[in-house]
User: Fold this.
Amino acid sequence: MFRYAAVAAACMLVFNANAGLFEDDEARRAILDLRQKVDASQLRMADDVRKNTEDNAQLRRSVLDLSNQIEALRSEVANLRGQNENLTRSVVELQRTQKDLTQGVDERLRKFEPGKVSVDGKEFVADPAEKQEFETALATLRKGDFAAAQTSFLGFLKRYPQTGYRTSALFWLGNAQYALRNYRDAVTNFRALVTAEPDHMRAPEALLSLANCQVELKDTKSARKTLEDLVKAYPQAEAASVAKERLAKLK
Assistant:
């Protein structure tokens, strides 16, 4: 009995020992599994950190490249802005030069273009050269150079036979000829003036000057007739008052 009990006790010890060995192996395997999992997790974490580090480095490089590109674009924009400002200034200068040239051309053209003038109450269109020549001849007369004035007016009427200055030119030509005692030619020109434009403001003066020429030519009869015509045709003119005085003195 005792022997069976001893055997049984021995079996229990063996069983207990085997059970303990089994539990230690399970624990070791669990620890190994856990360690492997931890190691794998650490490896993954290390890989993630490395990958994140590489990604961050790549991102920094990308940001740096983008920053460099932005700076390059800013520099290019500034350069283009400078070029645009230079181009704008060039365009402004070109426009100013063109405007100056246009004005200069217009001014030169105006020197040759006909323009409206007003002489002795009469308006008409005349070429600049025509106007200048008449004014030069008149200035010569006013200086008292009657011979040169006669030549200038004769040349003027020859060059511009249809000129609007014709009536005034005839009047001043007749005055120059009267001063030179060229009475017959003066009579012709004064008479031509009155015949061509009897309503011209110089017509009464022309008739009075015509009568003076006739007196100088000793043609008293014609002078009286001319004065009478003057008083009759232009009773309100100042020349008519002078004509009345002359008529009173003519014999």
About this structure: Strands lie at 115-119, 122-126. The chain has two domains: 1-110, 115-249. The CA atoms of residues 15 and 22 lie 10 Å apart. The chain has a mean pLDDT of 85.
